[in-house]
Design a protein that fits this description.
- The relative contact order is 0.16.
- The protein is an all-alpha fold and 464 residues long.
- Helices cover 73% and strands 0% of the residues.
- Helix 1 (2-9) packs across helix 5 (85-97), helix 2 packs parallel to helix 9 and helix 2 (21-37) runs antiparallel to helix 10 (171-191).
- It is built from 22 helices and no strands.
- The protein has a single domain, classed as Growth Hormone, Chain: A.
- Keywords: Acetylation, Glycoprotein, Membrane, Transmembrane, Transmembrane helix, Transport.
- GO terms for molecular function: transmembrane transporter activity.
- It is a multi-pass membrane protein.
- Residues 20-437 form the Major facilitator superfamily (MFS) profile domain.
- Belongs to the major facilitator superfamily.
């Protein structure tokens, strides 16, 4: 009822100016800047709350959140087509940021809220719809690129700022600042963001029933097998993004507690790899796709991902993590190239369907990957029982081990397993046809916005 009331009120003139891409950019920047500040405090609280099975619990928490996001994203998207974008921007940002103040008040409630907030943590889906409302097809690709760059910029800068504030003033101040930024984001949506969905469209669809097919998260997955080329691409995406999602959920905790990176070192690591990823996805991606083609660029990105995951799996020294991070930045070219390959392989009138399949598979991996990584860490007894939380350290150098311990033959078992799955993905990708014909591919690539409309820049930058 609350959402319905907000949606009705949004019919009146609200916000500042006409709806634009810049409204969406500010919303995304503030939300992820607030969460980026918490990188250091969150690792500390996670280890203090679950000292026995830290990786397992982290995987389960992130896994539940990812699965709930996968299940709810189609429904929220369908409802935003009826009730408007602004109301759902408010709801998704509010529930996504709701756990932030609980970090220092009650860690158990904090992690419980993180898991449950997955049902509403789909801000990007609503943002992309907002951008689609306010741009035409020629501008949409550039607009999505701007949203993607904003997301990357927020994650490049905020962990370093959070680590600095935590080192000098304590975690409580960091949580307070993040909470205030989240409140500022909510106030910005209430006061400054105008509704982007035209009144005529909302009036035509108001009260229209939401079909189960629109809200079914598995609807797109059931269509995968209808085209052999799309099937091969979807298998490639699943096998390559499953370890990527798991790595994203646990890697900073792994650097902190197993490799013994300090809080500031992690922040610097995130910034460096993030900047390299942005360079890889702009300069190198364009050059590679022009010279090698879409399929060979995908294969090159998968090759970098195999090397990166194997390096993380066998690496036990800090310099190895930095070297593998540079390789990880190059592996971020995979998913933009996959999107272009999907666009090339599908008919012009089926672009949205096939991009929806890819998005659905990646959403499923966001739930399965973290849980899989946490379970493998648990199976191989990679625990943190003998290590104390690292508090208030502002040394760029990694912290030495407190006492000599036996190093496992494979320090990071999940990363090695991930490398094996990406090898299989590489072999599957070899059988993807390059193009159907020159004329058909050129005609299919001519409307780039059709393929970008359902594309998620967030997932390009997940390596950040």
């Amino acid at each position: 009822q609350l959402i319905r009331n907000i949606g009705r009120r949004s019919g009146a003139p609200q916000g500042i100016g006409r709806p634009s891409v810049y409204h969406a950019v500010v919303v995304i920047f503030l939300e992820f800047f607030a969460w980026g500040l918490l990188t250091t405090p969150m690792l500390t609280v996670l280890h203090e709350t679950f000292p026995q099975h830290t990786f397992l619990m982290n995987g389960l928490i992130q896994g539940v959140k990812g699965l709930l996001s996968f299940m709810s994203a189609p429904l929220i998207g369908a409802l935003s087509d009826v009730w408007g974008r602004r109301s759902f921007l408010l709801v998704t940002v509010f529930f996504t940021c709701a756990p932030i103040p609980l970090m220092r008040l009650s860690p158990w409630w904090y992690f419980a809220m993180i898991s449950m907030s997955g049902a509403f943590s789909v801000t990007f889906s609503v943002i992309f719809a907002y951008v689609a409302d306010v741009t035409d097809e020629r501008e949409r690709s550039t607009a999505y690129g701007l949203v993607s760059a904003t997301f990357a910029a927020s994650l490049v800068t905020s962990p370093a700022i959070g680590a600095y504030l935590s080192a000098w003033y304590g975690d409580n101040l960091v949580v307070l600042v993040a909470t205030l930024i989240a409140l500022a984001d909510i106030c910005f949506i209430l006061l400054a963001v105008p509704e982007s969905l035209p009144d005529k469209m909302r009036l035509n669809t108001w009260g229209a029933p939401i079909s189960w097919e629109q809200a079914d998260p598995f609807a797109s997955l059931r269509k995968v097998g209808q085209d052999s080329t799309v099937l091969l691409i979807c298998i490639t995406v699943f096998l390559s993004y499953l370890p990527e999602a798991g790595q994203y959920s646990s890697f900073f905790l792994y650097l902190r507690q197993v490799i013994n990176f300090s809080s500031t070192t992690i922040a610097v690591f995130i910034g460096v790899v993030g900047i390299l990823s942005i360079v890889a996805q702009t300069l190198f991606l364009t050059l590679l796709m022009r010279t090698l083609g879409n399929k060979n660029t995908v294969l090159l990105g998968l090759g970098f991902q195999i090397l990166q995951l194997a390096w993380y799996g066998f690496g036990s020294e800090p310099w190895m993590m930095w070297a593998a991070g540079a390789v990880a930045a190059m592996s971020s070219i995979t998913f933009p190239a996959v999107s272009a390959l999907v666009s090339q392989s599908a008919d012009p009138d089926k672009q949205g369907v096939v991009q929806g399949m890819i998005t659905g598979i990646r959403g499923l991996c966001n739930g399965l990957g973290p849980a899989l990584y946490g379970f493998i860490f648990f199976l191989f007894n990679v625990e943190l029982n003998t290590m104390d939380p690292i508090q208030g350290d502002y040394n760029i150098d990694p912290i030495p081990l407190q006492s000599p311990t036996e190093r496992a033959l494979i320090p990071g078992p999940p990363f090695l397993l991930g490398a094996c799955t990406v090898v299989v993905a590489f072999l599957v990708a070899l059988f993807i046809p390059e193009k159907r014909s020159c004329s058909s591919s050129s005609s299919q690539l001519s409307p780039p916005a059709a393929s970008d409309e359902d594309f998620e820049p967030l997932l390009q930058d997940s390596i950040v």
